[in-house]
Amino acid sequence: MLHVVSSRPRPRMVVALALLAFALLPPAAVAGEHGDGRDGSWIAVWGASPSDPAPALAGQTIREHVRLSLGGDRLRIRLSNRFGTGPLTVGPLHVARQGSGPGILPGTDRTVTFGGESTVTIAAGALAVSDPVRLDVEALQEIAVSIYFPAGSGGLTVHSLGVSTTYISTPGDFTGASVLPVATTALSRYLLSDVEVRARKGRAIVTLGDSITDGYASTVDANHRWPDYLADRIRGHRGNEPLSVVDQGISGNRLRKDIAGPSAQERFDRDVIAQPGARWVTLLEGINDIGFPGILEPALPRTTAAEIIAAYKQLIARAHAAGLKIYGGTLTPFEGTTFPGYYAPDKEPVREAVNDWIRHAGKFDAVIDFDKAIRDPAQPHRMLPAYDSGDHLHPNDAGYKRMAETVDLRLFDDGDDDCDD
């Protein structure tokens, strides 16, 4: 017989060890400096899912601006080396309130540190979380994040479809410059994957999706993606507590395969469950699973409704296991799309079968009927022209606004209810 001797400390020892540990904590930790104490918690307020590798920008500074969906008294950022092939060293980094173009507002510039250091080395495939930065920010306010890539920096991880201007400097460290000297611009998000704020209360809505959630064909620098419009609506909604909206769309994304970014199933834990303060997730994916066979993968068989539904069931189970509510968005029309081979008559019944399951199976915690919101009543396989960007697949700004308007904000008033399995 195997006898196990307990190594559990005696009660008095436990108390003594606890008091000793508390006494050794730095003052910032005791006071809740990192958002774990009585004065606030960290909440994700912006996201840009890593989607692709990109060439190095050694010896240059980038400045990218992001709109925060919720305010707070401190913020911190996450940098991703998801597609790096080796360690990546970057820094210095600065944040400030966004001014005009490549400029920042005077007096708002702050240095960003990582473990107290002005530079950080991120392992291949990993991410880095910054120290808290003292900067009061308001909901729907834009901040500028400036990152210097020193000589020797390797390839970068980007979010390809930023629908936002990233300013790339002439050679040199201009992270603290009031106006960045611009050599060129890009429309991708470099390295920056998440922004969090510390707030006294609040929860996050994560919008997981493909290019329609990512804002393809929306106006550049206008924040006219449908999750942006949802954040606008939430500001005027008197719910239980403040809410943030975190856009985790990737253009071209699919549920089941890693072409055009990691699949929704692969990235679900990282892009949804790991978001601080996350309580709800909306899911609008599957149209690329239907459309890509015949265009990017002409030799592969068509994706079936059963395969898409099986992927949905997995994401529903994982969301519920993490204590999240998950709302299913119906797939929007795509007949007549200008992308050759993407639409075919035999693909439409698959979309309709998937939408029928979303609406009637009762597996999602609620349904957001995006299809009904923007389809043409006279031709329900097509998008209403007033909402069509012109490619008959992606909405325009008005279409994205209509999508946000169809979301019932009462869905986010019941944050304390339990999820059903």
Structure description:
The protein is an alpha+beta fold and about 425 residues long. The protein has 2 domains: about 50-195, Sandwich (Jelly Rolls), CATH 2.60.120; about 200-410, SGNH hydrolase (Rossmann fold), CATH 3.40.50. The protein is built from 10 helices and 23 strands. It has helices at about 10-25, 25-30, 210-215, 225-235, 265-275, 285-290, 305-320, 350-360, 370-375, 395-405; strands at about 40-45, 50-55, 60-65, 70-80, 90, 95, 110, 120, 125-130, 135, 140-150, 155-160, 165-170, 180-185, 190, 190-200, 205-210, 245-250, 280-285, 325-330, 365-370, 375, 380-385. The chain has a 6-stranded antiparallel beta sheet with strand order 7-6-11-3-13-14, with no helix packed on it. Strand 20, helix 8 and strand 21 form a beta-alpha-beta unit. Helix 5 runs parallel beside helix 7. The model is unreliable at about 1-40 and about 415-420 (pLDDT under 50).
Strand order of the largest sheet: 7-6-11-3-13-14
Q: Give the CA-CA distance, first to last residue.
A: 41 Å
Residue runs with pLDDT of under 50 for 5 or more positions: 1-38, 417-421
Sheet with most strands = 6 strands, antiparallel
- Output the CATH homologous superfamily of the largest domain: SGNH hydrolase
Q: What portion of the residues fall into strands of 2 or more residues? A: 25-35%
CATH class value of the largest domain: Alpha Beta
Mean pLDDT: 89
Which structural class matches the secondary elements? alpha+beta
**Any idea of the CATH topology of the largest domain?**
Rossmann fold
Query: What sort of overall outline do the alpha carbons produce when their principal axes are compared?
Result: globular
